[in-house]
Design brief:
single chain; 208 residues; alpha/beta; 6-stranded mixed β-sheet; 5-stranded mixed β-sheet; 8 helices; 11 strands; elongated
Length: 208
């Protein structure tokens, strides 16, 4: 069986729905229980739930053959995996945001607060700008409000949190969505099987 790492939470539930519609159902995963691993011999798959930011680690190190991770995770942590398909789920954007009165282009030594230091550094390097990266783990929006940073680099969905805190998007870095990824070694030995899953998933994505 192929082992598949699913991200916990609403995103993972949507992802599993996609696998189910593609023909890889595992009825046990719908039951209310505390099991960690769910198998379907009929479908030839084994699912397990993990923290979203850990999916790529499980896949990269071979504990899972396939997994689903956000493009933000793949760009930030750069795991050595194959990206097979954009699932079109969990769409949002990585953006620069700050106080309405702030013009980042006019700030000489730009202070950037973020959970994604690699993405932020790469973005500003492409613009030819040196920045002071301040790595935070939560409540990123507080940084410019309290004067810790000039701007933030973070994931933006609706933008409601920004508006409620008198912040706004200054520039968009890239679109984000969930991606189907594969362990490189497993892919070499089970290419046909993984490509079949990716193709069936693609057909379901196109129906959405």
């Amino acid at each position: 069986m192929l082992s598949i790492a699913l991200p916990k939470g609403r995103l993972g539930e949507k992802v599993y729905d996609l696998f189910e519609r593609a023909g890889y159902a595992c009825p046990a995963i719908r039951e209310k229980n505390r099991r960690l691993i769910f198998e379907s011999r009929a479908a030839g798959v084994r699912y397990f739930w993990v923290k979203p930011s850990d999916v790529a680690i499980y896949v990269e190190r071979g504990a899972a053959d396939l997994g689903v991770a956000g493009k933000d995770i793949l760009l930030e942590y750069r795991p050595d995996v194959y990206e097979l398909l954009d699932l079109g789920i969990g769409r949002c954007r990585m953006a620069v945001a700050g106080k309405k009165e702030c013009d980042p282009d006019m700030v000489h030594n730009l202070r950037v607060a973020t959970k994604f230091p690699n993405i932020a550094s790469d973005y500003y390097a492409r613009l030819g700008r040196d920045i002071d990266v301040i790595r935070l783990n939560g409540s990123i929006e507080l940084a410019p409000i309290l004067g810790l940073s000039d701007v933030i680099v973070d994931i933006v969905e609706t933008g409601a949190t920004l508006r409620e805190n008198n912040l706004e998007v200054k520039s968009e870095i890239l679109p984000i969505s969930a991606r189907l990824i594969a362990n490189k070694t497993a892919y070499r030995f089970r290419t046909a099987q993984m490509e079949q899953i990716a193709q069936r998933m693609k057909e379901q994505v196109e129906k959405q």
